[in-house]
Amino acid sequence: MIEDLQQLKDQALTELAAAADADAVEAWRVKYLSRQGLLPVFLEKIKTLPKEQRPEAGKAANLAKLTISDAYEAKKEQFSTVTSSAPEDPTLPGRPVPWATQHVVNQTIDRVVQIFRRMGFALATGPEIDTEFYNFDALNTPADHPARNEQDTFYVDAPADRDGHRWLLRSQTSTVQIRAMQTQPPPIKIVAPGRCYRRDEIDATHGVFFHQIEGLVVDDGITLADLKGTMEYFFKEFIGADTRVRFRPHFFPFTEPSFEIDMARSGATMKGKEWLEIAGCGMVDPAVFDNVNIDSRRYTGFAFGMGVERLAMLRHGINDLRLIYENDLRFLSQFK
Fold it and tell me: What's the domain range around 245?
């Protein structure tokens, strides 16, 4: 059998050397190397040999296969080089290249950050995996608050930190505000975009993860008027000059007083309503300042937070949150 294999190898190499063009090389490949080619079919016969003959035959077969394959690659490269060096025809039509577009969520984040930068806000970021201290404790969230339940928050199966705090996937970018107040003295003026996670039922307006943008201002003499003016300016810039904003009293554990922000546009309704809830905000609770060692008797501040996906839906008239993350290019390519 080894003699027959040697004869087949010599025959293959002779025919390959005689191939005069790329088509001839391809025909040779089909004849000798394809699934039903002469070489694979011949190698299948090794299985029928007696056990004592198989090792020697297998070694000879591998060597022959390697020699033939290397010769084929060299021959193919020879014609590929010739083809690629041929002059191009400038009269041929060009090939259109589709332009990539930024995802609608990233477009929205960039637009929001751009507006706040014009108002003097600095960009701040933080980790997506954080501890209960930054996500709840430092934000004045009581131990029995529903948000701390495992049915609402994703906890990480990992040892607690050195202070005994459990790890979790942050449910809000307020964690970045706490870290900023811990690491820099007032005045502070930051905007913090990022991904958050909550155990929500997936529907047209909710998902298990979402993007949030929060802001924080801390300084001497900051008042509710500063908060209202900042938010009114932002929404007029982002949505349109005819946007109206109202503050509706609410409760958040980390701000006092706290408000929901509703918006409306002249002569327009959204989801059948004149006013639509769009963000939460309030004056920073003095207890939060005490948790990060900022003098609450001297400094005041305000904070706000809003969902990026909801802003994108409002800006572009998207009626289902799930469309944003289905990766359908027919949908995503609309936002340029």
Answer: 104-332
Identify the helix (H) or strand (E) that includes residue 288.
helix 286-291
| 155/219 same-domain check | yes
Q: For residue 103, what is the DSSP state?
A: -
Closest by Cα among 197, 164, 192 to 178: 192
Average pLDDT over residues 309-322: 88
Non-local CB neighbours of 270 within 8 Å, separated by 6+ positions:
264, 276, 314
Judged by phi (left if over 0) then psi (alpha if -120 to 50, else beta), residue 102 lies in: beta
Instruction: Quote the CA–CA distance of 309 and 288 in Å, as a whole number.
Output: 28
What is the per-residue pLDDT for 265? 72
Cα 88 off chain centre by: 40
Could you give phi then psi for residue 234, rounded to 5 degrees? Answer: -60, -50
pLDDT tens digits, residue range 72-100? 888 888 876 544 455 677 888 888 887 77
Segment 40-84, tens digit of pLDDT: 887 888 778 888 887 888 888 888 888 888 888 888 888 765 444
Look at residue 277 and tell me if it is in a domain: yes
Position 133 in a domain:
yes
Q: What angle do CA 288, 293, 298 make, to 5 degrees?
A: 80
Q: What is the pLDDT of residue 82?
A: 47
Half-sphere exposure (CA, 13 Å, Cβ side) for 223?
Answer: 3
The vertex-125 CA angle with 237 and 217, nearest 5°, equals: 55
Residue 134 has pLDDT above 70, yes or no: yes
Beta bridge partners of 301: 218
